[in-house]
Amino acid sequence: MGNTAQQEFAPSTLGNVGEDDDGIYVIAVGETDDPESWSLAFMECPEEDMEDQQELDLGWDTYCLVVDPGQATHYGGVIECEVTETHLRLKLTPEAAHDLGMSADVNFALEFAPDQLRMLKDGLTRVFASGRANARPTLLHS
């Protein structure tokens, strides 16, 4: 469904989070604030994609995940998402894990200030509520 990832890698600790609401809403987490470091972006599905037949046919009518460096991409694919004060846990479909170069069960330690943690929780809730219902995580705790 997405790009083929070259290798499996994800850091154990995330120290950066940010959001962009200029056009398509994006919440992203990263290893550091260095633009060259590992990051995972969660992109909201635009309303117009829910009605575009080509987007529907390609399965692009839902949220999108992008891992950098490399821009490995997958649409949908999160089965479970849990955010606590200290961790972000994701359970991915095998296809999403493959495309993104991550394990299917990944647990990141979070080094975020309280306002950053709130941004992440609110942002993930917004992103996962977008797009087709059958692509939304069955478990979403934040």
Span between termini:
28 Å
Low-confidence parts: 1-6
Number of helices: 3
Instruction: Output the helix-strand order.
Output: EEEEHEEEEHEHE
Kindly provide the radius of gyration, computed on alpha-carbon positions and rounded to a whole number of angstroms: 14 Å
Break the fold down into its secondary structure elements and pairings:
Elements: E1 13-14, E2 16-20, E3 26-30, E4 39-43, H1 53-58, E5 64-68, E6 72-75, E7 78-83, E8 87-92, H2 94-100, E9 105-110, H3 114-128, E10 139-141
Fold and architecture overview:
It is globular, with a radius of gyration of 14 Å. The model is unreliable at 1-6 (pLDDT under 50). The two termini are 28 Å apart. The longest helix is centred in the C-terminal third of the chain and has 15 residues, at 114-128. Strands 1-9-8-7-10 form a 5-stranded mixed sheet. It is built from 3 helices and 10 strands, in the order E-E-E-E-H-E-E-E-E-H-E-H-E. It has one domain. It is α+β, with helices and mostly antiparallel strands and 142 residues long.
